[in-house]
Amino acid sequence: MLDHVVSLEDAWNSGGWRWPTNGREWRSFFNDVASLCPTAAWVDREKGGQNAAQWLPPSQAFHMRYVIEQIKIKAKYDLSVTRSEATTMRSILEQGL
Questions:
Q1: CB-count exposure of residue 6 (10 Å: 0-12, 13-18, 19+)
Q2: How far is CA 88 from CA 49, 68, 82, 92, in A?
């Protein structure tokens, strides 16, 4: 199955609420193949609508890639990052240096 790296709920909470519900922004976000990744159904259910501060992939080997993709997508769609997300993201990126 394919999952949105930034969940639809997180996108809504971090700025998507400003987009018209029937507008091109949501269609673009929803259909953007760069924001989709293959995953197992149980991982998708576990993640739900959580952001990067609340959930990371079960395999630590994917944490860095996941955070990088989150940052790219949130920047592309002008979505906000909470303080706790920023802290988590920074920590994971620093571990990779």
A1: buried
A2: 17, 12, 10, 6
Q: How many CA atoms lie within 13 A of 17 on its CB side?
A: 7
Q: Under the phi-then-psi rule, with left for phi > 0, alpha for psi from -120 to 50, and beta for the rest, what region is 50? A: beta
Are 84 and 55 within 8 A, CB to CB?
A: no
Location of structure tokens 């990744």: 37
pTM of the full structure: 0.91
DSSP code, position 58: S
pLDDT digits (tens, 9 = 90+) for 28-76: 999 999 999 999 999 999 999 999 999 999 999 999 999 999 999 999 9
Task: Give the span between the Cα atoms of 16 and 4, in whole angstroms.
Answer: 14
Contact indicator for 79, 16 with CB cutoff of 8 Å: yes
